[in-house]
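User: Reviewer 2 asked us to show a designed sequence for the structure in our supplementary figure. I'm pasting the structure tokens here. Could you produce the per-position amino acids so we can include them in the response letter?
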């Protein structure tokens, strides 16, 4: 027995020794190992502007001061470059300056001064080691400033880490743009670029100044400047559009208490819009990513983080991801992507002053960018519709076999429509979930035929025709992205994405209390390039024959991932393209498309956003949640919030939707929710339509006039009137005042009772 055990250990060790080099070699092969440097193809190189006159060339560690050199000018601004590649912009009319570093540098000393007075933080990995941060002034090499059209190119040749790259700064009518041309990145195979964080201290504010950082956490959040504050051990650093689920470390946390185990992180909101900004006194900026948002992080550091007294924010562009795998009992084996993530990276800074310096002003300039430069058109919206979702059913495993739990049949759905109509709710937009074969999880990505226990295809078609005759639109939910693992309708080994270790990747549900993964609730992620050709295109005719008004495409608006399969590598940028193509294809064939949450890349491709972000993560350094998402998206795409019957706080959450201009919704069933206990869908804990009928009608009727007034209208202003009282203003002059306090408040000549709101139309006692 002992000999066999000893032999097992020897064999395991041999396998580990053999596998790790194999994985490393495999990773290296994706980075073209025959070449000593990563270079772009001729197409990338052809798009790069030739550098003009060299303004200076200096050693990176040379601390000699170089006088500021003007490099660009327009009607409003003048751009200058200093030594170390530092750039600043001056408003010619009033002398205000936006520096690449804190305006007051008198407090900076020693190594902290060297770190803060630099325009980029570099992360790289050397010979497979853990990623390490550095900056140009810390490395041996040279920095060169040369003229380009409208600005300056700062080129870095860092010999000590064998890395070359450039940052281009161009002056614009409203600020400046930064671009990292992919074609100018060169790296040695042993030293691989992980990320570039641009202008980490741009216009940084001291803790004693007045203002705040804006971060796009969920609907948006503010970090107020405070002279007295905690010493923070962490900062805000989150991936745009959530983590890449092809990498375990981006969606799970390693558990020290569970050997080789992982926990899901505490619930938090995602970044739906790639925007950040700052208000510092009477000046500030809004910055938004225009290229490379698919692989980027937005960072914001409060004063007190890393013993620095500055508030600052920045974008960090990701060129490679890291992950780790477990091999036997050897522990964690770190891996880094071999192939660099290609493409130019760009960020636009709009410089703000005076009345425009607020999160409202930041939202307005980003919205203007979306409508003018990305040509996003508003979705036609007239009268508000009651947003109703019905749940069909779910299959539950039993001791022997399984049972389909019917919650709402197609015939019962017709009855529910009639009941609401009989109570005066004539305009309904109904979304049907769990209608497909075997219900909510069933055999997805296969959806047809419709579940027989609910009435089958014949009754579903009858329901849709009946709904249309009553003026009710019906969306059918469809899941072509994240199917349940116990499913024979597709082959994971061929059709699911793979991680960096080349294994098929899985996601899991987690225990609410412990956050541990529930291994029996496993899901795959379908290869994005297969979604239309292999799945939706084969079913699209079924949807059109049924006469559905549209499809709600699960996970397309709130889940973005890559595929690390060596035979079929697919980047997050490519997945963005696949998702927008999927939405456009659905709209062209079925009529309409809806998504959850609404990441920025879906704008212009959807007709409705459900479960729109209306809250922040409430990190310890955040001071206030704001409706930045609604200030940008409102009037472009109709939005609804989390179902009202699943709220944490029935009263205040309802008021939050009113304040933000987001329509309420309900997720209901015909049968009692006790029926779905012990199923995969036990989260639907209170949904019987008869129990919620009166409350749903009262909420819809109470907000109906507001949503009639603001239909298709952008939210143009939002302000705090006093503690627990806020006012939102729309483009047509309509205002809504929300009072969250337990006492009445008075604003101008309007009294708003406790936990109520007041609708003020243009001309109602005000100019």
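Assistant: Here is a per-position design you can include in the supplement:
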């Amino acid at each position: 027995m002992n000999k066999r055990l000893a032999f097992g250990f020897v064999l395991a060790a041999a396998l580990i020794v053999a596998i790790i080099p194999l994985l490393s070699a495999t990773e290296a092969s994706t980075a073209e190992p025959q070449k000593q440097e990563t270079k772009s193809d001729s197409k990338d190189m052809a798009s790069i502007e030739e550098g003009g006159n060299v303004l200076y060339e200096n050693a990176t560690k040379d601390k000699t001061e170089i006088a500021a050199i003007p490099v660009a000018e327009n009607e409003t601004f003048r751009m200058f470059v200093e030594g170390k590649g530092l750039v600043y912009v001056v408003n010619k009319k009033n002398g205000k300056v936006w520096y690449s570093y804190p305006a007051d540098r008198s407090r900076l000393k020693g190594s902290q001064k060297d770190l803060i007075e630099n325009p980029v933080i570099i992360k790289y990995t050397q010979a497979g080691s853990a990623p390490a941060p550095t900056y140009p002034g810390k490395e041996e090499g040279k920095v060169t400033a040369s003229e380009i059209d409208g600005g300056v190119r700062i080129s870095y040749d860092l010999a000590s880490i064998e890395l070359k790259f450039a940052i281009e700064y161009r002056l614009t009518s409203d600020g400046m743009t930064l671009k990292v041309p992919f074609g100018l990145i060169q790296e040695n195979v042993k030293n691989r670029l992980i990320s570039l964080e641009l202008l980490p201290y741009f216009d940084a504010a001291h803790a004693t100044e007045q203002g705040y950082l804006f971060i796009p956490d969920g609907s948006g959040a503010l970090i107020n400047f405070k002279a007295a504050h905690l010493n923070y051990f962490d900062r805000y650093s989150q991936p745009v559009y959530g983590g890449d689920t092809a990498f375990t470390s981006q969606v799970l946390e390693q558990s020290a208490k569970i050997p080789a185990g992982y926990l899901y992180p505490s619930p938090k909101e995602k970044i739906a819009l790639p925007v950040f900004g700052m208000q510092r006194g009477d000046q500030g900026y809004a910055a938004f990513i225009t290229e490379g948002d698919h692989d980027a992080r937005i960072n914001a550091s409060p004063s007190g983080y890393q013993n620095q007294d500055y508030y600052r924010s920045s974008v960090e562009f990701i060129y490679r991801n890291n992950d780790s795998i477990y091999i036997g009992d050897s522990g964690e084996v770190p891996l880094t992507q071999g192939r660099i993530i290609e493409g130019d990276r760009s960020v636009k800074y709009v410089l703000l002053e005076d009345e425009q310096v607020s999160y409202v002003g930041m939202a307005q300039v980003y919205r203007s960018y979306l409508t003018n430069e990305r040509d996003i058109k508003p979705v036609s919206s007239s009268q508000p519709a009651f947003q109703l979702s019905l749940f069909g059913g779910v299959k539950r495993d039993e001791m022997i076999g399984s049972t389909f739990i019917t919650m709402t049949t197609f015939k019962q759905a017709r009855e529910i429509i009639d009941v609401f109509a009989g109570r005066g709710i004539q305009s309904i937009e109904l979304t049907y979930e769990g209608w497909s074969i075997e219900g909510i999880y069933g055999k997805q990505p296969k959806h047809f035929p419709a579940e027989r226990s609910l009435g089958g295809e014949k009754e579903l078609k009858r329901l849709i025709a009946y709904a249309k005759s009553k003026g009710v639109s019906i969306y059918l939910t469809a899941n072509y992205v994240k199917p349940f693992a116990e499913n024979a309708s597709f082959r994971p080994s061929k059709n699911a994405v793979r991680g960096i270790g080349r294994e098929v990747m899985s996601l899991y549900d987690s225990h609410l209390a412990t956050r541990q993964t529930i291994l029996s609730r496993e899901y795959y992620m379908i290869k994005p390039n297969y979604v239309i050709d292999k799945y939706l295109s084969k079913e699209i005719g079924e949807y059109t024959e049924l006469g559905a008004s549209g499809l709600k495409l699960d996970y397309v608006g709130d889940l973005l991932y890559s595929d690390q399969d060596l035979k079929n590598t697919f980047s997050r940028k490519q997945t963005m393209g696949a998702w927008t193509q999927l939405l456009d294809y659905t709209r062209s064939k079925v009529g309409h498309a809806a998504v959850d949450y609404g990441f920025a890349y879906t704008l212009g491709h959807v007709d409705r956003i459900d479960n729109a972000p209306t809250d922040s993560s409430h990190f310890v350094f955040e001071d206030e949640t704001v409706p930045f998402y609604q200030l940008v998206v409102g009037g472009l795409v109709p939005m609804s919030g989390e179902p009202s019957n699943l709220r944490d706080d029935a009263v205040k959450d309802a008021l939050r939707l009113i304040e933000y201009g987001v329509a309420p919704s309900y997720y209901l069933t015909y049968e009692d929710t006790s029926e779905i206990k012990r199923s995969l869908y036990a989260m639907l804990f209170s949904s019987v339509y008869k129990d919620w009928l009166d409350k749903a009608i009262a909420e819809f009727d109470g907000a109906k006039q507001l949503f009639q007034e603001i239909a298709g209208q952008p939210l143009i202003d939002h302000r705090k009137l006093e503690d627990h009282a806020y006012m939102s203003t729309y483009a047509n002059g309509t205002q809504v005042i929300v009072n969250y306090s337990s006492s009445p408040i008075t604003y101008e000549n309007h009294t708003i009772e406790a936990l109520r709101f007041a609708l003020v139309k243009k001309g109602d006692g005000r100019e």
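For the response letter, you might also mention the following. The mean pLDDT is 89. The first helix runs from residue 2 to 29.
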